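Sanity check

After download, print the first record. It should look like this:
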Amino acid sequence: MRRLAIALSLLVGTLLAPVGHVANAGEELLVISASDGSVTRLDLGDLKALPVSEIRTRTIWTTGVQEFRGVALRDLLDHVGAASGMITAVALNDYLIQIPTSDATIPGPVVAYLHNGKQMSVREKGPLWVVYPYDDNPVYNTEEYYARSIWQLIRLEVPR
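Expected C-alpha cells:
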C-alpha cells in the first residue's frame, strides 16, 4: 500500500511539474516562423536582450493594476523583419488567434515574460503572455482584443 502511495505521489508530481515550471536559462520559449521559411528560436535571454517595454494595466483575468514587462510586439516584429499582414499566434494548448501587424504600435501590446516582477509559470499564463495596455485605450476593452491577448504563447507565424 505504501509503495502505491509513493508511486501515485511521484506520478502526480511529474504530471503537475510542467504546469508550475518557469523557464530555465537557455530554454526555448518562442519560435517565430516567417512566410519565407526562416525560423527564429528565442529563449528568455534572447527576449531580455531586446528593448524592454512595460505596461501597467488592469485585465479581465486579474485583480487590480498589474505590471507586465517584456518586449513590445512592434520591437519583436522588427527584430525578425516581419512585413505587414496577419500574425498567427499559437499557445501551448493549440489555441490560435490572428493578430494584425497594425496592432504592433508603440505604445501597444507587449509579449510579457514578467508579471509583477516574476517569471510566469504555465499555470500563471506563462511563460509568455501578449498583453495590451487596456487602461490606456478603450478600444482594447473589447472581446476582439481580449481574444488576441494570448497566454502560454509558444509560436508566432509572421509575414515576410
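If your output differs, re-run the checksum step. Summary of this record's structure: The longest helix spans residues 2-20.
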